[in-house]
Amino acid sequence: MQKRENNSMLEGSKKQKVSHKSLTGIQKKELCQKFIDSDEKLTQAELKEMYGIGRSTVSEILAKKDKWLNLNENLILASNKRDHSLLFPKTDEATALWFDAAINAGLTVNGILLQEKILSLLRLLRKKGLKHLVDE
Known about the structure:
With about 140 residues, this protein is mainly α. Helices cover about 60% and strands about 0% of the residues. It has seven helices and no strands. The relative contact order is 0.09. Helix 3 packs across helix 4 (about 55-65) and helix 6 packs across helix 7. It folds into two domains: about 20-80, Arc Repressor Mutant, subunit A (Orthogonal Bundle), CATH 1.10.10; about 90-135.
């Protein structure tokens, strides 16, 4: 009899399964802004409830608040829910600048042209002694 009572008490105290929620970059920026905004002075617990996320998630977002507050909302990345950090951000930035210039110049950019440009950029970086930006 004792075991049944203990089992029923355990069943009643089991935690409910929590669904995981991801925020977009724009939502993370908004969360950080609300946290530092002098008018609202929201706590992490209040932000947790407001956004339906865990307190540790709020802490992780606020730890990177400079990144999120400087987020350009017009970028496609701002609407992403996952942060995919680049392995070589400077190389990617240079490629993106070239890509934008090529499009603005009316060039048709295909996979082969893009691959050739990236390879020439990598060769240039190696030649200039910036091998650490290219190699792992």
